[in-house]
Amino acid sequence: MALVPKGGRLITSTTEAKAKGEALLESIGDGVIATDQKGRVVVINKAAENLLGFTSAEIIGKFLVRAISMQDAQGNQISDKLSPITLALTTGKIITTTSGPNYYLVRKDGTKFPVAVTVAPVLLNSKAAGVTVVFRDIAKEQELDRAKIDFVSTASHQLRTPVSIINWYVEMLLGGDVGSLASEQKKYLEEIYKNSKRMGDLIDALLIVSRLELGTVAIEPKAADLEAIAKSAWADFEVWVKHKKLSIKHRREGGPLTLAVDPHLMRIVFQNLFSNAIKYSPDGGVIECSIERRESDILIAVKDHGVGIPEKDQPKIFTKFFRADNARIKEPEGTGLGLYIMKSILGQAGGRVWFKSAEGKGTTFYVALSLSGMTRHEGPQGLEPPAGV
Amino acid sequence: MKIVIVEDESALVRVLVEKFNKVGFDVAYATNGEDAIRVVKTTDPDIILLDLILPRKDGFAVLEELKRDGALKTIPVIVLSNLGEDENLKRALRLGAVDYLVKTQHPINEVVEKVQNQLFSKSR
Q: Looking at beta carbons, which residues of chain A come within 8 Å of B102?
C-alpha cells in the first residue's frame, strides 16, 4: 500500500501490507498451511485450525508431516516419503489429490475427514523454499455424489419394472400362451412390444449418460486385441445384418492392433459405430471397417454408403437426443444418445471421435486412440452392456 | 422339477408361475425375503429364481443365508433383477449365484431356457 505525500517520495507501509496479508489469509474459507523448505509449519490460517481442531500454537514450527496425520481410505497412514508435502518439496511440482483415490486428514480428537488437497511449492530461484497447502473437507460433496448415484440407480430400476411386466405379458400373448390371436390383434401387440423395448433402450441409455456425467464410470485398460473386439461387436448384429443383406469389408494396417483399452467400453464404441452404419445403410449395402496403426495412434474408421448427415445437422450430431430429420425418417426409433455416449466415453478415456459425411452419399466415423491406450479412471462402477443403443 | 420364484411384483409372479407351469415345473413362490427362506425349506426346489429388491429382507441377505445353510447351499440360484449395476452383478456372483439376469434384457422364454440349461448342466 503506497502513500504518496505531495512532492515527496513513495512510502510503503509494511505494517499495513502485513495486516492486509493476514486479513486475506484469515478470510480464505479453505484451510491454508505454509511451510519452510524443511517442511516446518510457518503459517496456518483460522480455517485450517477449525478443520483440524489444532491451535496454531500447537502446529507452528513442527514438521507438517508429523504434526498432521494423513491416511488413505483403508486407514493406512501415508508415509512421510509419499506425503504430497514431501513430494512437492522434492520435485518442485504442484501435487493435487483432488482426483483419484481419497485421502483423509486426522483431527486432534482422532476423527478423520476426506479432503481435496493441493500442495504447491513456493519457488525461489526454481527451488522449493517451502510449500503452501490448501485443503477443504469434501465429506458433504461425497455424500451428494453418493445420493445422485443412488437416485439414478433407483430411478432406472423403478422405470424398468413396468417395462419388464409389459414385455413378458405381451410375449405370452404373442406366443399364443393365452389363446390364439387374430392377425390385426397380433399387429397391435407387436407395436406395443416394439415401443416397450424402445422405452427400455431409452432407460438404459439414460442410465449410461448419468453415470458418464457423474464421472462414476471406471475405465480399466488392459492389453486387448482391437480386431477381436470389433469382430465380436459385429457378431451382435448378425440377425439385423442378415435381414438387411449387408456385408462388411475389413481392412487392417500398420502392425499389431493390440492396445491398452477397457474391453467393455471399447466394445460399446464398436457397437455404436456399427449400429449407426447398419441403421442408415440401404438394404444390400456394404460397410467398411478399417483399423490402422499409425505413428502415434490407432485409427478406426467405419464407413457406410447410407443416408449421410445433412450439412446443417452436422454441428449438432454429438449432442444429447439430437437426430437429423433424414435419420428420423429412415429409422424412427433411435434414442438420439448413442453418439453422445460414445463421444463422452472417448473423451474420458483420452480418445477422439469425428466424422465426414455428405447427405445421400454416406458417412465415415473416425475414432483415434493414442498408442498409450485409454486413460485409467477409478470409479465405483463399470457400464452395463446396453441392449440396444 | 421344482422351482421357487422369489419376486415382490405380483404381476411378474403371475406370469412367471404361468410360464414355468406350462413347461412342466412345480412352482412355489415368495413375495418377500423372510418368506423366501421358509418356502425354500418346505419346497426343497431344484433351482431358485431370486429378485434383489424385496420387502423385509433383500435378495442379497436371502442369498447369503441360503449359502450359509448346509442343506440349502447346493441349490443353484439365478438372480432375476432390474438392478443393472456392475457392482450388484459382481456381488451376487461372489455370494454364490450361478447367473444374473436383468429382466428387461431377456424375453421370458430366455429366462426359462437359462433355468433349463442350469439344471441340465447340473445333472451331468
A: 160, 384
Q: What is the ipTM of this complex?
A: 0.94
B104 vs A153, A164, A380: nearest CB: A164
Picking from A172, A383, A387, the nearest residue to B108 by CB comes out as A172
| Helix, strand, coil percent values for chain A (each to nearest 5) | 40, 25, 30
Whether the pTM exceeds 0.80: the reply is no
- Count how many residues are written for chain A: 389
The contacts found for B28-36 with CB under 8 angstroms, 24 or more apart, are: B28/B2, B28/B3, B28/B4, B29/B4, B29/B5, B30/B4, B30/B5, B30/B6, B31/B6, B31/B7, B31/B55, B32/B8, B32/B56, B32/B57, B33/B6, B33/B57, B33/B58, B33/B59, B33/B61, B33/B62, B36/B4, B36/B6, B36/B62
Best CA proximity match to A209, nearest among A86, A76, A339: A339
The 3-state DSSP class for residue A319 equals coil
Q: Is the pLDDT of residue A239 over 80?
A: yes
Chain A residues within an 8 Å CB radius of B7: none
Return the SS3 of A313.
helix
Q: Within a 10 A sphere around the Cβ of A210, how many other Cβ atoms?
A: 18
